Amino acid sequence: MKLIIFEDALFDNFYPLTYMRPAFDLRCGGTTLREKIERAAGAAASALFVRDWMAAVTSAKNDAAVNDLSALSGDDEILLVNGRCLWLGDAKPPAGRDVVGKAADEIAYVSLTKETAAGIDASDFDSFLAAACEAAAPEEVPGLKMLAYPWNLIEENVEAIADDFKKLGKSGVEGTLAEGAYIWGPKDLVYVAPGAVIEPTAVIDTQDGPVIIEENVTVNPHTRIQGPAAIGRDTVLFGGKIREGTTIGPVCRVGGEVEESIIHGYSNKYHDGFLGHAYVCEWVNLGALTTNSDLKNDYGSVEVMFKGKLTDTGSTKVGAFIGDHTKTSIGTLINTGTMIGIMSNILGIAALLPKAVPSFTMFMQGMFFKAGPKKLIETARTAMNRRKVEMLPEEEELLGFLFELTKDERMAAVKKSRKEMMARKGLA
Amino acid sequence: MSNDIAARVKKVTAVLLNVDEAKIEDSSRFVEDLGAASIQSIELVAAFEEEFDIEMDEDEALAVKTVGDAVTFIAKTIEEQKG
To answer: Complex ipTM, two decimals?
Structure first.
């Protein structure tokens, strides 16, 4: 069986999280959407289909073929899975049958026998997918959910962590639980991987759910990790309150308070400050006392800037969505339901940020300014080198593309700010 | 035109950096002589863009060191963007 994972046209619903990665590489629980799909299928993806401008960097980072139509041909059963699918539960893809697996009226996957697959014209991916859906019989699949918006990742994180723990199939302490460190709650609801060290006075609280701690994690004294939680490899926790529903990806440095949030990986929030109901992409640095709101004072539904319009999420708890390589200064205050683009440099102003911060901007003194992409990319490269990661040429090219892609939104904010600045200075 | 550009550059610089316009010369360095901090350098670029209705490459604009060089850079940008 050949597993093929694809992005559909809704990849841009997840901006800014999907500026630098395909939708199926988003994290929910302790693993990414793709890792869950591969686990359910029992196989690594042999091919990935992504939007055109994501192909080069996806190819550079993966062994699987990318946007290669020849993957649709051959003498195999084919399983085509929509990368927005959150594959939880015990459902397995069918074998030997032509099935459209549905999750609440959306197509989660199409499974084709080799005979049916061989009979479909494979000269275009969208046409192949449409024909495949026609050729197969629909079935509702329990446990599968189609994610549509960035806040869905947060909403599903608690269940996804618990599902990942169950499927991990391991529990107990294979690393080090120092004397004076405690597991409070069921001991079979924690897994501490080899090389991970839980230092004295740290507490792992499994009363409300499982805790996964991956390889070589260091948990400093006075850290409390409340399950469900998943902490990725090589991360260091600096005495913070890691509250329920939190995923911290690999190679992060995290302190302060984090609640029901996902930090994708390679990001820092060393110091005090609250992060709640948020998704933080890679290579982000949140300065000391950066704090976001995830609940309005009137407990009302939170609105976010979605595709240029203020849109009701229908949820009362929505924090912030912060794109790759963005930095905040000390004391930055982030409003409820804020979208922050990639490569932005935010200097806090003792007042709430605007609810939309465009990519590649400097925000200072309450105004937006253009930021030169060359210097930003050099800073990004330096940040990556500090963690012994090289910026790929394809990533640099993608950043250049994204600089142009995000130009209109940025220039609208910058031009408005310029006029305001000139007026403030008496130069208008 | 260059004289007009120079006069406007010096006026904007004087206001943003809170310096005496009469003391600004073509050879004046924004940072060393006029005291521009990094935030003010960014504001200066933005102000010049608004003043002259042009868009400058931020990396190149921030590399300009003197008032005279800024006048030259702005004049060149105006020529490129407005013909």
So the answer is: 0.91
Domain count, chain B: 1
Report the interhelical angle of B67-82 vs B38-52 (nearest 10°).
Answer: 40
Domain range enclosing B58: 2-82
B15–chain A Cβ distance below 8 A for any pair? yes
DSSP state of A295: B
Q: Calculate the CA A38 to chain-centre distance.
A: 17
Q: How far apart are CA A158 and CA A339, in angstroms?
A: 22
- Please list, in sequence order, all residues whose beta carbon lies within 8 angstroms of the beta carbon of residue B61, skipping any fewer than 6 positions away: A372, B45, B48, B73
| Contact residues, chain A to chain B, C-beta under 8 Å | 347, 362, 364-365, 369-375, 411, 414, 417-419, 421-422, 425-427
Beta bridge partners of A317: A295
Residue tagged 């109901």 (tokens): A277
Instruction: Report phi then psi at A280, rounded to 5.
Output: -110, 125
User: Hey, what domains does chain A have and what are their CATH numbers?
Assistant: 2-148 (3.90.550.30), 153-425 (2.160.10.10)
- Token pair 């897994």 is found at A191
Whichever domain contains B9, its CATH number is 1.10.1200.10
Which of A375, A419, A421 is nearest residue B59 as measured by Cβ atoms? A375
Question: Is B16 an interface residue toward A (CB < 8 Å)?
Answer: yes
Q: Chain B residue closest to A428 (CA)? A: B51
Q: Rounded to 5 degrees, what are φ and ψ at A129?
A: -65, -45
Residues A131 and A128: their CA atoms lie apart, in Å, by: 5
Q: Along chain A (428 residues), what's the average pLDDT of each consecutive run of 10 residues?
A: 96 98 98 98 97 98 96 92 97 92 94 94 95 95 95 98 97 98 98 98 98 98 98 97 98 98 98 98 98 96 95 96 98 97 94 96 95 92 96 97 96 96 92
Beta bridge partners of A9: none
The tokens describing A10, both together, are 């809704």
